Each structure stands twice: as structure tokens, then as C-alpha cells.
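Box S2. Input/output pair 1.
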Amino acid sequence: MQSLGQDHVSHLPQAMKPRNDGIDLDIGWLRSVRVNSAAVHRRAAALPGLRRLPKDNKALWLCRAIACMDLTTLSGDDTADRVRRLCAKARRPLRPDLAQALGQDGMTVAAVCVYHEMIEPARAALEGSGIPVAAVSTGFPAGLSPFHLRVAEIEESVSAGAQEIDIVISRRHVLEGKWQALYEELRAFRAACGPAHMKAILATGELGDLRNVARASLVAMMAGADFIKTSTGKEPVNATLPVGLVMLRMIRAYHARTGWRVGMKPAGGISRANDALTWLIMVNEELGAPWLLPDLFRFGASSLLGDIEQELDRMISGHGSVGWRHAMG
């Protein structure tokens, strides 16, 4: 397992990288997609065994997980005050003593993700931090509102200052094999995003099987998605390792054929530090170091940060802050 190095992980916005322009819909490519589900599940089952790391390197990987978080609140009772508190945590995700001991002063999360109505308080609270506001859109989470309203919602959120838009696809297009309809929907969403980066939420728990996940991933990338995202977090089944493995391999295939690098965002159900390590290790093994930065990898997270902070606190308490400063260089 590679070391992540000694420097703190600074925020690297997706906007610093070339966008995915997309390509024409390639039906032949979609029809050629095959997924060996048994092999995928065997590989995914083996991944947790790879997360045994030396303590100092484990701490760096956990800090990397924090730097790749979209810190999220998507509740019906969200208030401006709650969002402002979330943004304060986004600016300083670790307690000052932990950050100092780990050499991570200045680290932030990757973005703050909210509903449209909370864009303005989030934008104001994050001003000057370099942390973008991401907004869920297109009738999140079900995506069943009228099409023109979904497009207008994107445009409104971009106008309000959202720099990233997390859209939801029409699952029925996947389930019915209507790939042209899905592609055209996503192209319209991509156009409505304008300068904002688009994360396409596939809601993989509602797509039926892994082959549909693979095909939906490809269509989203062909249509110009900058990220593909597993879930809304509202489905009964959200981010799973087999789904993540299939999506990562489609990202690799798309990059090999087109040269475009598309990001990955697992969301929903990832709440433990060890789970975050497993996902980072899987990304590293499937795609390599370029995908271990916030411009190409995100966690959709609400409770994950708290568990990672507690784990780091336990590690440092057993090591001593002076010892950590020595171990971390």
C-alpha cells in the first residue's frame, strides 16, 4: 500500500481540471458491456482485508477521506443556522489540537452539499474559503417532477451561486433500456449546469442489477457528467462495494477510450472510518493516485466526519502529539 506522503491535503476544486465534454451516445459500446457479478462480489468481499495500515499512514488516509468529503445536510428541517454551523465545520473539520498534531492545519472538506433553499446561507458562510457549494437538484431524490421544472431548478441553483450540481437521473429509462432518452435528459441537465460541475446520481439501489449500473455509468459519462455518484442516500440500498467497483471500472474504461477523467462519489451508508478506508483503497487499486484527490473523488457524508475524528483522537491519545509530529514528519 502506497504512502500518501507527509503534506496536508489541501482543497483542490474540480474546476481546476478540464471538464468532461462527453461524446456521442455509443449504443454498440453499451450493448457490449458485460458484468461478471460473482467475480465482482468476490473482489468486493476481499477489499476490507486490505485496510490494515501502519498507524501513521492510516492517519494520513483518514485525513485524505476528510479532504474528499462533501459535507452534507439534506433534511426537511434544515435551517440557515444549521447550515452555517455545517459550513464552520467544513472550514475546520478537525479540532485544532488534532489538526496541529497531524500536521493538517488548513485542511478543509471538499464541498458543502445542501438543498436549493440553503445555497445562500452556505455561500455566505463559505465566502473566502475556496470551498464550493453543491446543490442537489432535478427533483431530488426521486427525480419525478416535470422535466422543464428539473431543468429550471438547475438553472436557479447555478444563478444562486452553486458551483456543483448533484442531479438525479430518471431510473425508469435504465430499467426500460431507453438509453437515448437517458442520454438526452443528461445532456439537457449538463447544458443547464453551465459553468457548474455536474454530478450524476444513478440511485444504483434502484437500477436492478450491476449490468444496468455499468451501462447507466457509461451513458452519464458520455453525456458529460463530471462525476458519477452512487446514491441519493434516500434509497433502501445505497453505496455498496460491488456497485462502486463496477462504476470505477466504467470510469477506467471511459478514460481509456476518451482520455477524459470522470470523478466518483459514493454516498449513503458510509459512516465509519474503516469503511472510508476501504473505499479509498479500492479507488487507489482500480484507478490510481490521480483519483485520490477531491477533484476526482468525493464522499457524500454527514456522520462520517465525526467517526473519523473520534478514530484520529483515539490514535493520537495512544501515541502522544509529540510522537505524531515526529511520525508524520
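Box S3. Input/output pair 2.
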Amino acid sequence: MHATLSRLETSDFPRLHRKYLETLQINVGYKCNQTCLHCHVNAGPTRTEAMSRATAVDVIAFVKDSGVRTLDITGGAPELNPHFRFLVSSARALGVHVIDRCNLTILEQPGQEGLAQFLADHEVEVVASLPCYLEDNVDAQRGKGVFETSIRCLQMLNRFGYGREAAGLALNLVYNPQGAVLPPAQAALEQDYRNHLQERYGIEFHRLYVLTNMPIQRFGSTLISKGQFEQYMHLLKSAYQPENLESVMCRSLLSVDWRGYVYDCDFNQMLDLPLQSEKRPRTHLTELAAAGLAGNPIVVKDHCYGCTAGQGSSCAGAL
């Protein structure tokens, strides 16, 4: 694995400051049942990092005290964490909107029986990764057979009411480019997804989120191995749009790792760039007062151009 931080360290990215905190995004562990080429977490079946019950309790306490509106749960495959359902049910009991960043195939994994029912019962928004609507492209990026399983799991979610307007259960899909290119326009690609998935498989969904691949962890290492890292960074910088600075996710989102330490975003977490603090080199969630975050400087490096290039990119798609 090639490290990328040294190539991102010297940066001319504009300074940014935080706004009011709306979303707490927690990475509950790096274990995953898939190993995807575009993964910025370097997640996979052999990873052992996992949020403990004590840290999960700290998360819920922070959610209650801070008044955040959304708990965004990611991984790895977040459902593999043994405290995933505790986090969901506790947050929902507080009236907080919950997002599950789901890779779809986890729904058919042993031990995950009843997962779709649980998500529906708790009205969890499912944000599901499906990097293309064509089988060969998905399998090339995520592994052989992943597309076929993903389709079955999307059909399962539809049967529980996900993606159907009348049921009110949000099902949003995520697209990532296969290589060192910017994603296409979100609206047009969403219509292509909708047409193909409906006509071929009878699948319905609400929105498509188009994300730019970040030059860090597994994808960044792949770029270095192929001699494409500098070329990709030039692409991101040349497509920089300053108006995207107003809407980047780090201004209203806080990222928490499996140990409970906080970061401005999930990408900074993967680069081990903690939330900036004058008092300590690294801040735990239990040491943080959400009210004091507004105006706090955001740690920026060259990877931030990935969020501001072209149409922009965030956890909710194009900006």
C-alpha cells in the first residue's frame, strides 16, 4: 500500500471554517465483506478495527447532547459491527434521522438475516453503493458476482418498501467512476440508472449520488502504482470550482472513527488528520462540545480538491 499523505501535504487549497453541526458521521469499523478498488477506507474481510460498545454509548450520548439531526453510519460494512443495531435503535429513539451506508451484498451474508426488516422497521435511510448499472463494470470494480447479488438485494429492499414513494423509505444509490476520471453529470446519469434498473430488473430508487474518487488509501495507492497520481491531481485542480466551497460536507459534518476520535471528514480520518485543536493533538468525542465547533478551522490538504472539482462531491452526491 502506497501512502499518499506526503503527496498531498503541500497544498494551496483555500482555508475553510466550520458552520453549525448538523450531521455526525461515524465509522464503526473497517471490516467489510468486499474489497473494492475505489475504496478510500482500504476496508476488507481481514480488517479487525471495530467500535466498542462503550464508544457506541459515547456516540449516542453526544447525539443526545449536541442536537445533531442526522447520524450517518459507515464502515467497512457498518452492519458487521456488533453494536450497529444498538446505534440505530438508540438514535431513532431520540428522533434522529439515521443513514446506513450499505454495500448491498451484506444483506445476504450469514448472520444478517432480518437486516432489511430491521432497517425498514426503524425507517433508516439506505445509501447503497452501486458503481454502475452494468454487470461487467460492477464486478470489475467490486468483485465477481457482486452485481448479481446487489440486484437481488435491491429487489429485497424494494419488497420492504424502500425506493417506493408511498412507503417513504429512502433508498439512494452511489456511483463512483472506475478510473482516474471525474464522474459524469449526476442528473443525466441518474435517469440512465433509473431507466435501466426499472426496465431490466423492476428496481426503484429515489436518488443517485455521484461521488468523485479520492486520491487516498486503496484508490490513491492504485494511482501511484499505475503512475497516474500526479495526472489525477492535475485533473482535480484544473476542475476546481470555488462556489463548491460553500456546500462541502466538512462545514456541517463531523467524522468519528471507531475509537471515538473526531475529524473534519471521513477522508481526513483515513489520512489521520484529526480535528484541529489548540488544547490537544487529538480530540475524543467525549471531550468535544458541539456548540464550540462553529468557526473552527478545517484541516485541508490537496485531497480536498476532490470535493470541489467540477459539479462537486459530498456524501450526498454532487454539490
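Caption for Box S3: The domain at 5-308 is CATH 3.20.20.70 (TIM Barrel). DSSP finds eleven helices and eight strands in the chain.
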